[in-house]
Design the sequence.
């Protein structure tokens, strides 16, 4: 197959359902290929790492949007998204990211562990009630969608009474990551406006009554009176935390469980501790990456044998890099004991996922609790994959627990 045939196949329902044989074909063509003038696709693990760590490759920011989509300012979602650290380069990115990192600390994440365990157990209790008689339980809806959104709400400091209803709004907004149809814009814009209004109100309440939560800490930073973090930057990046950390972690939980359903020995090994939960999570991230790709704007340089020009769109295929046979022995085998390097599922360099530790803790808590609680956990019917390509996961993963 040549590159065009491979990418045509990746766009079909079969290719989306299982891109991995096509990634294997891509690896045979080299680390990177030029798909069309101005479009470079990168599948090699080392090349992906090098690009993400090279400040010459920039994320698509306001300037690029002006060029690609001049009408963007009419859309609240893009106005907000241009403040997201995901879409910032250079000093502005470094300034906001370091202020966020100061509040989103390892300590805060570690302290969330008992609350995550409690929330996971509550969801498992509800699953137990529903599935006690042997009827099917829907893991995605009953667990994987609920745990991450509840955890992020807890982290940010969104009161429990307000959380109901966040999931559909966050989900609507998350569609901006895979934006390919102008018809979705009204719903995405409405979600952006709603979340902005909500965070504006919550910030007002927390300013007069600070709590031990991330929003109060960020407000303290922004109110430090030296203008380091504007209100808009603060509010918009809270929205980013909500949407960036929600479906991604949902998909880690679903994709990991899918491995356990197909190869039950891994569920048993996580349950009895012979495979440490952290090693299972790391291999699940590699094996079926919840985020399959990200992109950068290129500059005059070379990736392997491929020439890159200023302004080229360079797509790094994270899900393919994780199966690069040059890096991973038997890349299509699920092997939690492997020591041939970490996956690129959280990106790398300046934009490395700020929530990676949180996602790892969530997976590390959820999987052992799930398989210890339900030793008879098994598939109940065909899983339904999401049609999305960038965010890879399931819509439905029915299981029986008794
Ligand atoms: C398994 C779960 C997750 C995966 C696979 C994932 C993946 C990624 C990737 C690949 C990037 C880099 C994008 C790029 O370089 O263009 C990223 C960035 C980011 N992630 Fe995550 N993520 C996950 C969970 C989370 C969580 C739980 C949060 C927050 C609560 C979060 C917040 C962010 C933010 C704010 C960025 C932007 C960082 C920056 O641009 O400096 N993510 N994530």
Sequence:
């Amino acid at each position: 197959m040549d590159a065009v045939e491979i990418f045509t196949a990746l766009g079909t329902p079969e290719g989306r359902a299982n891109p991995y044989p096509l990634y294997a074909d891509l690896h045979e063509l080299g680390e990177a290929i030029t798909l069309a003038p101005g479009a470079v696709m990168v599948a090699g693990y080392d090349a992906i790492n090098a690009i993400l760590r090279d400040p010459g490759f920039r994320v698509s920011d306001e300037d690029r949007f002006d060029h690609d989509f001049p009408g963007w300012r009419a859309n609240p979602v893009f106005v907000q998204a241009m403040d997201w650290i995901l879409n910032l380069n250079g000093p502005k990115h470094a300034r906001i990211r370091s202020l966020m990192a100061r509040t989103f600390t390892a300590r805060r994440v570690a302290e969330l562990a008992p609350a995550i365990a409690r929330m996971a157990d509550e969801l498992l209790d509800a699953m137990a009630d529903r599935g006690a008689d042997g009827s099917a339980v829907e893991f995605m809806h009953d667990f994987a969608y609920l745990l991450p959104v509840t955890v992020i709400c807890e982290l940010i400091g969104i009161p429990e009474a307000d959380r109901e209803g966040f999931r559909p709004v966050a989900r609507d907004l998350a569609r901006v990551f895979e934006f390919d149809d102008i018809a979705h814009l009204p719903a995405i814009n409405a979600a952006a406006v709603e979340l902005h209004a909500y965070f504006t109100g919550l910030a007002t309440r927390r300013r007069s009554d600070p709590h031990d939560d991330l929003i109060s800490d960020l407000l303290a930073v922004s109110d430090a009176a030296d203008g380091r973090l504007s209100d808009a930057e603060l509010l918009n990046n809270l929205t980013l935390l909500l949407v960036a950390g929600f479906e991604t972690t949902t998909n880690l939980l679903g994709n990991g469980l899918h491995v356990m359903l197909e190869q039950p020995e891994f569920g048993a090994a996580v349950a009895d501790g012979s495979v440490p939960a952290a090693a299972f999570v790391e291999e699940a991230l590699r094996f079926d990456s919840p985020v399959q790709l990200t992109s950068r704007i290129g500059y005059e340089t070379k990736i392997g044998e491929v020439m890159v020009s200023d302004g080229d769109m360079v797509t790094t295929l994270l899900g393919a890099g994780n199966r690069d046979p040059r890096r991973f022995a038997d890349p299509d085998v699920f092997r939690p004991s492997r020591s041939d390097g970490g996956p690129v599922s959280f990106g790398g360099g300046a934009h490395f996922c700020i929530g990676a530790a949180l996602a790892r803790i969530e997976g590390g808590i959820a999987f052992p609790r799930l398989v210890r609680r339900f030793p008879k956990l098994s598939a109940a019917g065909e899983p339904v994959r999401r049609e999305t390509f960038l965010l890879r996961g399931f819509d439905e993963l029915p299981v029986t627990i008794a």
